[in-house]
Task: structure prediction
Amino acid sequence: MKCKPNVVLAVSALLLALLMQPLSAEELYQSCIVCHGDAGQGGVTSGAPALAGQDEAYLIRQLRNFRDGVRGAVAGDDQGMQMAAMAAPLSDNDISALAAYLSELNRSPATLVKGNLRNGMTLYQGKCGACHGSVGEGNPSLNAPALAWLDGAYIQRQINNFQRGLRGRHRGDRYGRQMNLMAKGIESRDLDDIIAYMQSRTRD
Result:
């Protein structure tokens, strides 16, 4: 028995409509879990940052930057390039949904980095606190992300990327360019102390 042409068209249209239904944020995040963890806690092995509890506007901006070639497009930034490839198919609606979902997840403390907390406090307050908050909690009004819950190795890599011009060089990355300048004033020998101070405050 053959279906009438109008029935076939109707069924085809229904199937197409179902396939075109937007994915929920949870469904979109499934492709992120392998690197960023099932609860957005980040991955030490993968080197992927924690995303849970991060400011929604910051997440939107970074996902768009990856998708649009503002970030992750410089040779040498291997992990940034991987993320750019992952973000490439995302629509603005996908990005907004993901950012809202991730911003509502509970933060998990990062593995503590060892360092001189007194020196870290002095350096952090002098170099970072004005934008990123008194304890690294972030400041959305200044477009500065939370840092204290990020893994130490990730923070070190990003500071290094800023210093080397692998991040924050694109003309469209206004806030990245600001951070590019600030990162040049941070000595590698002091970075562990800064990170240790921030992470210690998440346990207070």
